[in-house]
Design a protein that fits this description.
Length: about 280
């Protein structure tokens, strides 16, 4: 049973939070990085956010956030009653309104009770503005657990034929009752121009989803992930700015079509190297 504090009698009921699952089907396309950066950007804007790692047995969200040393309890501890939800939630060290609920590292996805996980997400929606669920790869039990409590989904897809095919399969499995949007990740404009990589239009000709944003393939992301510092919090990073704009679109404070990353001109490259 999930322990919760009873609300004060005079408390004004808060608007229920949004539960959004970040998924793709294919592994290695950047779901966890997207979850961490979107959560950090939303939290930095003042929203209360909890990130739930649903990848039981292969957790990585704590590492991307740089919180691995502070995890003492995990989602299965909460579901099985060996720890309270408050004991398991870890506060981010940079964004005070951001929390992490880590996955178990030495357990299996089949050990998660899907109905109990749905109830957990429901309880988190009562406490936070956003509940972002990091979905594991594949379409088996872990996928079913991750999507059960979410009424919105963000599909992360790289410009690869295999990733697009898997994403298309996942979109079908998400059903008609959820709002589903797309992030295209790791785009290389130079390869697109040479015809060696799918363009954003190529990707969405198949998926046909509302586009939240496009993330360029840049060293910033690898460096920030290895350091455990979300690039969305780096004001000088173009990739960080792309994540912040995506967060604004998720929040509904930004409208209009996302900008597609382009190849830098010769003079931009020249003056950039001189700086």
């Amino acid at each position: 049973m999930i322990e919760q504090e009873a609300p004060a009698a005079s408390a004004v009921p808060r608007k229920r939070g949004r539960a959004i699952v970040v998924t793709s089907g294919k592994g290695g396309v950047g779901k966890t990085t997207t979850t961490a950066n979107l959560g950090a950007a939303l939290g930095a804007s003042g929203a209360s956010v909890v990130l739930v790692d649903a990848d039981v047995g292969l957790r990585n969200l704590d590492i991307v956030l740089g919180l691995e040393a502070r995890v003492r309890h995990h989602v299965l501890d909460v579901l099985e009653g060996s720890a309270t939800l408050d004991d398991a939630l870890v506060t981010d060290k940079r964004v005070p309104t951001l929390r992490l609920l880590a996955a178990a590292q030495t357990r299996e996805k089949d050990e998660v009770d899907t109905a109990a996980f749905r109830d957990l997400i429901a309880s988190l929606r009562d406490r936070f503005d956003y509940v972002l669920i990091d979905c594991p790869a594949g379409i088996e039990k872990g996928f079913a657990n991750a999507i059960v409590g979410a009424d919105e989904a963000i599909v992360v897809c790289t410009p690869e034929v295999s990733a697009v095919r898997d994403a298309d399969r996942v979109v079908g499995l998400l059903g008609d009752g959820r709002s589903v949007k797309l992030i295209v990740n790791r785009l290389r404009p130079a390869l697109v121009r040479k015809g060696k990589m799918l363009s954003v239009d190529d990707v969405n000709a198949i998926l046909r989803l509302p586009l939240l944003g496009v993330i360029a393939d840049a060293p910033d992301v690898i460096v920030s992930t290895n350091k455990g510092e979300p690039v969305a919090l780096d004001a000088a990073s173009p990739v960080g700015e792309a994540y912040r704009l995506i967060a604004q679109r998720v929040a509904g404070t930004l409208t209009g079509e996302p900008e597609i990353p382009r190849e830098r001109t010769f003079f931009e490259k020249l003056f950039g190297s001189l700086r």
